[in-house]
Amino acid sequence: MLPSTPTRPLLGSKTPLFLHPQQTFCNFFNKNPNSQMGTKPFSSKSPSSLPAEAHRTTDAEAAISLQEWQGWGTISPVPSMVKQVIQDLKLLEKDIDSEMTFDGNHGKLSGDFKVHEDKKHRAKYASLGNSEEKLQFFSARQIACRLLGSRGYLCQKCWLPLEDCMCSKVTTCSLWHKLRIWLYMHPKDFLRQNNTGKLLWQVYGVQAASLCLFGIVEHEEMMWNELNHAGRNKVWCLYPNKNAVTESVKDGVGSAVDPANEDGIMHFILIDGTWSNSNAMFRRLQDRAKLVWGQELRCISLNTGVSLMHKLRPQPSWDRTCTAAAAIGLLYELQLVPEFRSFGLEKQAEAVETALEVLLKALTARRLRMGRSISRRERHNRDIC
């Protein structure tokens, strides 16, 4: 492993980011320890008997349109398995004559429907023939529930409750056209209010910073088609582990790409999930890379530092940080490479840093308004965002 370069202040405290060791991937059906902002229930009962943010989920509404799906920050078609899970949920409503309700973070089923659905989905999971089918079903079910439970409650752009929407305060910025960022996100982080990866496509747009959901075939195929076209030498992952060969940005990226070559688009994969889930995500990427190229992904290391979000969402250690901070650190370090100094990468990093400050203020204000602490207890320290 190459020696790390001296840490320099970045990021709001202007510090760059993000390396972490392998962790054990938690069981798919363990309870998610991550609490979310907002605890009001969602139900598909009549609107007159429900809070303002709840609404009735009719058969017509249950279908996810392409417009709605892409409104959440993706450029893919609606995943076929997500559509199937939603159809199965609606059929179960009719079979047991019990309506879907969502509580907590609006992505978790609740009430009598949850009891019946839990039995059904566990039986379905057990009947699947291999680990790949199990993963795809798990991911689709997580996403389907979050989509239905968040309707009419979360803003599609910033993933915050509508009364706390921060979109008007976020300034967009164009990312250098020879950079593309992939947010490889765990389904349990999809539509999480304190997720920071979403800021990248809010600021740069969905074509420059693209969402790829772990276990969703349509997403993973879309990403790998682009990566395969680019070639291994123009793809890097910001998740080196202790057994991986790592490169610095200067030596790994600076020596591999000619900025004058218009075809040389650089692709960077940022893993967006809890620390306990990230190991399985990284392993899946490496398995696919070996299948496509016969070699593992190239991994780059960055200077370590502390994100603005650390006070609200403590990390397991001071050398780990949130996804947005990882992107900021990457851009700052690319700016230091002589070949890239003329492309305004520092300004592009500052745009995300400003959006991160806006998100922190919005989350803090919501917690204070609800009478909740603005500091997370140590039991939540396995999270990244």
UniProtKB/TrEMBL annotation:
Region called Disordered, residue ranges: 36-57
SMART domains referenced in this protein's UniProt entry, alphabetically: DTW
Transmembrane segments: none
GO molecular function terms listed in the Swiss-Prot or TrEMBL record: tRNA-uridine aminocarboxypropyltransferase activity
Signal peptide boundaries: none
Entry's EC annotation: 2.5.1.25
GO-annotated biological processes: tRNA processing
Comp. bias regions, Low complexity: 40-49
Reaction(s) catalysed by this chain's protein: a uridine in tRNA + S-adenosyl-L-methionine = a 3-[(3S)-3-amino-3-carboxypropyl]uridine in tRNA + S-methyl-5'-thioadenosine + H(+)
Domain of life: Eukaryota
Alphabetical UniProt keywords: S-adenosyl-L-methionine, Transferase, tRNA processing
Domain called DTW: residue spans: 151-372
Protein name, UniProt field: tRNA-uridine aminocarboxypropyltransferase
